[in-house]
Amino acid sequence: MLIIIILFFTKTKFLFYVVAILAGLVIGSSQSVARSWLARIIPENKKAEFFGFNGFSSKIAATTGPLIFGTVSVLFNQRLALIPLILFFLISFILFYKVKE
Fold first, then answer.
1. Could you tell me the pTM of the whole model?
2. Rounded Cα–Cα distance for residues 10 and 13 (Å)
3. Closest listed residue to residue 53, CA positions, set 79, 35, 28
4. Which DSSP symbol is given to 79?
């Protein structure tokens, strides 16, 4: 969320590239941590079901995220289209916070 907030206020091309590098460093590691955490918390006999659902939800996110970003970009501007991304992160944080290991 911090990267998105910084990106929202970025005015120069140099700072944009710095933020893009930071995002690139975080995205891959956060995905691998999420997959290992999922593997750790699911029951052994339900791994295929949970990873199947994880793949399905990734496909849903890959379609709805750009759709919402594009819609907000067309209606307003790209800077405001970053706001729904922050909302998605907040919602996912709240949902994952309630998961008991």
1. 0.76
2. 8
3. 35
4. T
> In the chain, what percentage of residues exceed pLDDT 70?
99
> Structural domain tally of the chain?
1
| pLDDT of amino acid 32 | 87
Residue type, 57: S
Token pair for 32? 């691998």
pLDDT tens, position by position, 67-81: 999 999 999 999 999
Residue where the block lists tokens 């995002």: 23
Contacts of 57 (CB under 8 A, 6+ apart): none
Q: How far apart are alpha carbons 17 and 92 in whole angstroms?
A: 27
Retrieve residue 85's tokens. 């991304």
What distance in Å separates the CA atoms of residue 33 and residue 56, rounded to the nearest whole number? Answer: 18
pLDDT at 12: 95
d(CA 66, CA 22): 21
Domain that holds residue 79: 2-97
